[in-house]
Amino acid sequence: MAETESITITPYTVKSKGYETIATNTGTQSKGPYYGDIAITSGQQAQYSSTQSVRNRSEPTIGFVWIESTYSWKGSTFTISAPAGAYLSMTINIRATGKGRLVILPKAANELGVSYNYDNLDAAETLYTFSSGNSAYATNKSDIIAKVCQYGIGVVPTYTGGDDKITSISGSVRYIATGIPPQVSNVEPISQTVLASSDTVFKWSYRHVTNMPQASWELHFVRNGADTVLASAQDNSTSCTIPADTLPTGAAQWYVVVTAVEEDYTLTAQSDPSYIIVRTNPSTSDVTVDNNPRLTVEWIAADQQAAQIRVGDTVYPTVWTDEGSYTIPEILSDGVYPVSVRTQTTEGDWSGWSEEIYADIKNVPPTGAEPPELTYTVTGTTASLMWTAVTGAEAYVLYRSGVPIYAGDGTAFVDARVSGLAEYKVRALLTGGYIESAPQTLIIIPGADTLVYSDGGVPRELPIRHHPQYPTRRWDETADVEFNNYAGRTLPVAVYDGHVSRGLTLTAAYRSPQEAASLLSLLGKTVTYKSKKGDVCRGVIVSASRDSSLTDAVTYRITATDDDERAYLT
After folding, report:
1. Is 430 within 8 Å of 365 (Cβ atoms)?
2. What are the C-alpha distances in Å from 399 to residues 409, 423, 563?
3. Is residue 368 within 8 Å of 361, Cβ to Cβ?
4. Please, is 238 exposed, middle or buried when counting C-beta atoms within 10 Å of its C-beta (0-12, 13-18, 19+)?
5. Has residue 293 got a pLDDT over 90?
6. How far apart are the C-alpha atoms of 295 and 329, rounded to whole Å?
7. Which of 19, 154, 184, 286 sits CB 3.0–4.6 Å from 300 for a disulfide?
8. Do 309 and 328 meet the contact criterion of CB atoms below 8 Å apart?
9. What is the structure's pLDDT at 342?
10. What is the three-class DSSP state of 285?
11. d(C-alpha 160, C-alpha 162), whole Å
12. DSSP-assigned beta bridge partners for residue 461
């Protein structure tokens, strides 16, 4: 079984006269022996069929050649070639009612184009001697294939005195693969995210240069170095559906191994791996609560690394845990609260919020517990609060106008952010409930505009004296809008994301360079601005400038920040 290199052929120009040959292509009958390009592409067959009745020795069939689909009568040079690792094979099938010889037409038959009978072809090179019935001639010799394509073939019947007939002749030239593997490529999913909770369809393409059919396949899935065969079959499918809840979550690869079989050859090929990320829509179920004022919520979730708990309108900070239990970090007042939970998987995917259940909070403190006594003092614009200890208390929570501003086991707190009217109360957390103090109300109105800042954890106050030649204060608020220009539009398109920037710009005059330097030293730090009109701005000093024409005058800007001062129990 020899390998065949490319065969370059220059057919002779046909000079047809004195004899009849039926050259059939898509049902067309023509005169004379015709030649055409054998344009064999991957996996195609170039073939030609002829049906001829041979009635006597003076009318032999000649001029039989292979063509593919389009006649080309100019006799131009063409090439038949087999790819590396394959060979060309020629097969001629004959159906006859008598005996005869299959021969290669002599060169003279093409050059002279004269009428030839049996005697003219008696010396022609014989390819095959056939008998009545069906028979076939096959070869993979490149020199014979070249001669047949160049000169054509003839059929010379052995005259027996009867009406011998060559019923049909057909032939083909094709590639036979010996070692060319199939080409298999992943189609989808490639570099995509797939959902483990849904069916996943894997697709690939299969191609072989000689159309060797795919006989079987295996779909492989690789994660964390483990190679698993997800599915396999003995067929030519190029897709496979993997049912939901089969794929493990995380980054993975997949590839396909296929086998191709033709005649005595079996070839194997593997696609290049494709990367995918398998995600899941996690679910959170079976949420329960204990109805304690410091509520404990429990749930069931799979593959959890974090959770969020929502009670009423409050979403508590994310808890990084794989456990299905959480005690909220504050004390709830009596009432009914909707509760729901959502969880995050180890791949970072969040579930939806669970169906709401309701906690019926009832405070049941121990019998005989004495409430804490809350007192305070005011220094400048700062309130110092103290309360008495309660026997058996696990922790205390101090509230200013309903907002928890301190949570811990201490019995004192300094509130530097208070301004205007405020009501305070403190709760002592006990087993089964809490006990709280009587409320204390105070009013803090600064005698002058004041900046409050922290000095090593100790609140400090810096009075602001406004210069009469400058605006005392100016508030501004700016929307965060992005303007995008697009082709075909003269004006830009505005995109507003809902964020705003709010700030306060003011100029202060100080009695001494030391006071001015104190303000300049706060650049980049968080401060609380309190005006004697009750305005409050908490934010960062982002700019400050000193006017050399005025003694110790400083202009500065405070950009307000979203500062949540809610305190939580640990």
Report:
1. yes
2. 14, 8, 17
3. no
4. middle
5. yes
6. 9
7. 286
8. yes
9. 93
10. strand
11. 5
12. 452
| Model confidence pLDDT, tens digit, residues 475-485 | 888 888 889 99
Q: What share of the chain is helix, strand, coil (3-state, %, to 5)?
A: 5, 50, 45
- The confidence score (pLDDT) of residue 14 equals 31
Token pair of 90 as six digits: 């020629």
User: In this structure, which amino acid lies at residue 312?
Assistant: G
C-alpha span between 154 and 124 (Å, rounded):
9
**Residue 471, pLDDT score:** 54
C-alpha closest to that of 127 among 158, 151, 92:
92
Region 275-283 average pLDDT: 79
Distance CA 519, CA 531 (A): 16
In the chain, the domains with their CATH numbers are 7-177 (no CATH), 183-279 (2.60.40.10), 295-349 (no CATH), 374-444 (2.60.40.10), 450-560 (2.40.30)
Query: Does the model's pTM come out above 0.90?
Result: no
Q: With a cut of 70, say whether residue 26 has pLDDT above it.
A: no
Could you give the CA distance from residue 158 to residue 306 in angstroms, rounded to a whole number?
92
Judge whether residue 34 has pLDDT over 50. no
Using CB atoms within 10 Å of the CB of residue 527, give its burial: 0 to 12 exposed, 13 to 18 middle, 19+ buried. buried
159 CB contacts (<8 Å, ≥6 apart)? 56, 57, 118
DSSP state of 69: S
| Alpha-carbon span 482 to 499, nearest angstrom | 11
Q: Chain-centre distance of CA 511, in angstroms?
A: 64
Cα separation, 174 vs 160, whole angstroms? 36
Q: Buried (b) or exposed (e) across 194-204, using 16+ Cβ within 10 A?
A: bebeeebebbb
Helix ranges (H only) for 198-307 are none
Asked if 339 contacts 357 with a C-beta cutoff of 8 angstroms, the reply is yes
Phi, psi at 196, each rounded to 5°: -65, -25
Q: Bridge-partner residues for 46, per DSSP?
A: 173
Instruction: State both tokens at 131.
Output: 């008998």
Can the peptide bond before residue 157 be classed as cis, meaning omega within 30 degrees of 0?
A: no
User: Are the C-beta atoms of residues 137 and 127 closer than 8 Å to each other?
Assistant: yes
Look up residue 297 and give its two tokens: 């919520």
Q: What is the DSSP letter of 59?
A: -
Q: What is the pLDDT of residues 181-208, one digit of tens each?
A: 889 999 999 988 887 878 899 999 998 8
Q: What count of other Cβ atoms lies within 10 Å of the Cβ of residue 110?
A: 22
> Which class for 567: exposed (0-12), middle (13-18), buried (19 or more C-beta within 10 A)?
middle
CB 107 within 8 A of CB 121: no
Q: How far apart are CA 542 and CA 501, in angstroms?
A: 12
CA distance 44 to 493: 56
Q: How many of the other CB atoms lie within 10 Å of CB of 316?
A: 16
DSSP string, 333-394: PSEEEEEEEEEEETTSPBPPPPPPEEEEE---PPTTPPPPPEEEEEETTEEEEEE---TT--
